[in-house]
Amino acid sequence: RTFTTSAPSCSEKDVVIIGAGIMGCATALELQRKGFNTLVLDREAGAAHGSTSFSSGIIRTFYSLEETTKLALEGHHYWANWEEWVRSQTRNDGCDVAEFTPMPSLLLRDVACEDWIQTLINNHRVLNIPMEEWDLEKIKHELPWIDWTNYYPPRRIDDEKFGEPNVKEGDVHGALILPMSGFVADPQLATQNIRWAAEHAGAKFAFKQTVAKIHKNDKRVEGVELEDGTVIKARVVVNAAGPHSNKITEMAYSDGQPNDMKLTTKPMRVEAAYMDVPKGVDFSKANGYIVCDTNLGIYFRPDVCNTMVVGGQEPACDPLHFLDDYNNNDPAFTDEWEHHVYRANLRMPTLGIPNASRAQGVVSAYDVTEDWVPVYDKSNIPGYYMCIGTSGNQFKNAPVVGKAMAKIIEEVEAGRNHDGDEHCWVGLDLS
C-alpha cells in the first residue's frame, strides 16, 4: 500500500513527523498553519502517550545559557495565553483545555551554587525578566515549614554522612525568586490541545504506527515505511521521536551515508515521586513555590489536590542510567525514588516517607545529548530534520520550538543555506 500526505501539486510541501509528543505536535501545528500538508506518526495510541505525559510540566525561565533563557521567556507567554495560541478550537469543540498555574520559582542559594546563580541573575537582568533576591530571614518567614539547613554536597542515603549539616558553611544564605514561572499539571492534555488545533488546521495524525525505514534517493529523503509495509511519500521527514530519536537517526543513516552530527542522543531513565504535602501545609489556601534545591540535588513543586511532585537534578553522587532502547525501560521504582523522597524529607521534616505499597510517581526517560542542549536543525541529508535531545528540560519551550522548526523547514526547503546563514526570525532574535 502507498499513500501520500497531500495532492501531487503540493508534494513539495509534504511533511512526515515521527513522534506525537509535545515537540512533534507543536511542529505539526506551525507547519500546517504555514500551508505544509503534515502527517504525524506515533507508535503509541495517542498524542503524548509517551515520555511527554510523564513531564513535570514546569514552566520556568532560568537556564545557564542566555539563548535558552530567551527561548523560555518567549515560551512563557504562550503558556500564559494558552487558548490564544491553540485558538480556542478545543474549547469550541467541547474539549478540555490545559491550565497553566502561575507560581514563582525559588532557587536556594549556597556557596557551592553561587556562581551559577549569578549567571542566572545576569541572564534575567539582560532580558529584563523580573526577579527578587531574598535573604535567609525572608525565606524563613515565607516558608516556615522548610528546614534551611545546608546539606551540601548531595549524598546518597547509604552514605554514612547523609543528613549531616555542612557546619563549615552554615545554613543556605537565601534564595533567588523568579515570578515568571508556573506549571502545567496535565502535560498530556496540553499536547492533545496542540494536536486538536493542528487537526483543525488540516494536519493528520496516525497512531499505533511504527516507522521501520526512512526512504531516500541519491539526493534526499523520499518518505518513510511502516512496520506493516505501508509506504508514505514525503519530501520532508522530521525526527521528533523523543527517547526513540537515536533509533530514528540510525534509520536515517542506515545506508552508510556519513553522519556529520557532533552530538548524539540516547534515552536516560528517570524517576519522580508523587507525595502528599507536608503536614500542616495547604497549597490550596496559600501560594506555593517551585523549589530548585541544588543543595540536596532535588526539585519539588505543588500539584493538584494538595499533593506534590519530587524529582532529581542528577547530582554528582547519583549514577546516570542510560538505556540501549527505550522500549526496554523497566517501569518499576528503584532506589532512585527513595533518594528523592529521603532528600525531600531533609528539607521538609514533616513530609513523611510512604511505605513501599503506597509509593507513587512516574518512571520515564529523557532524550539526552552529551551537553544537555537540544538539537533543532536540518541534517546533511536534504529533507531530514531533527527536533531531538530535549534532555528533560524543554517541555516549556515547545510552542517556540514548533515555530522555529517550521521556519527552519520552510526556509531550507525554499533554498536557504541554513549552515551559512543561521539567523532565524520567528518573532524573537534567537541567533
CATH superfamily of the largest domain: FAD/NAD(P)-binding domain
Q: What structural category arises from helix and sheet content?
A: alpha/beta
Radius of gyration: 22 Å
Number of helices: 10
GO molecular function, one term: oxidoreductase activity
Keywords: Oxidoreductase
Function: Required for the assembly of the mitochondrial membrane respiratory chain NADH dehydrogenase (Complex I). Involved in mid-late stages of complex I assembly.
Organism: Paramoeba aestuarina
Care to give the gist of this entry?
With 431 residues, the protein is α/β, with parallel strands linked by helices. The chain is 25% helix and 24% strand. The chain has helices at residues 22-33, 66-80, 82-85, 89-92, 114-126, 136-142, 187-201, 245-252, 335-347, 398-413; strands at residues 2-4, 15-18, 38-42, 58-59, 100-102, 105-109, 132-135, 174-178, 182-184, 204-207, 211-216, 221-226, 231-233, 236-239, 266-276, 290-293, 298-303, 307-312, 321-322, 360-368, 375-378, 384-388.
